[in-house]
Amino acid sequence: MIFAADNIHPLHPEVAAAMDRLDPEPIRLRARRLADAGAQWIDVNPGYLPRSRADRMTFLVETIQEAVSLPLILDSPDPRLLEKGLRACRKTPVLNGLTLEPRKLDGILRLAVEHQTPVVALLLDAKSFSPPTVEEKAALAVELHGRALDAGLPHEGILLDPVVPNMGWPDAPARIAHTIETVRLLSRGHLLGKPTRTLAGLSNLRSGLRRSLGPELDCALLGALAQAGLYAVLADALNGNLVRAWRFLEGLEASSPGNLSKNKVYGLSEA
How many Cβ atoms are within 10 Å of 179's Cβ, its own excluded? Predict the structure, then answer.
């Protein structure tokens, strides 16, 4: 299971301040900390940017690449920002943010095909709604996967994100169970006829609830997702307990035969 760090985001005050001032040093330091912590990919999420600040995506990509050689995930619902990030990348990144929304299908999928980059497709419908059940998630997976194949991406270039629910949702426990089962079905090839790579954003689990819910929930869900065959987790690489849990799970996985190879992702350069 690959660990992708989600710590480059303007919700972090030091990242927001650095983006405002175009000050590279805090971003370089944070990128090095993530690499030292064990992150294998770095997610670059500039947040919402008006046209006058679209250069911040380029700034983040260039600054991170000055500090570390890890592969990047360009994370934005805005195809315009993803294109700016792509132009600045020295290595092939992953594009994160494809859904069935027409604007994203037209923009993000087009970029992925043109640049032959892997893409993360979130199991959200055309109105960005996350369905609660395995059956509904499976239907979205089949449709998104088919759209990506028809557009020209290979199966290996598609990572499906079942969308981890927030614990504040009233039906969160049931949704979590359905999310885990969706990962299991995809990773074992039961939904699409062959094993399919999955990515899950773990930080959404306790978003807005970190004062009332402890980090042990993240570790517990990480273990369940790993058991289900999760390919990559997008999470806080500066959470020591979580990283230690991931390393332990990696040790277990390394001794298990028959795992989907993680040495290469279609189109993605290795660090």
Answer: 26
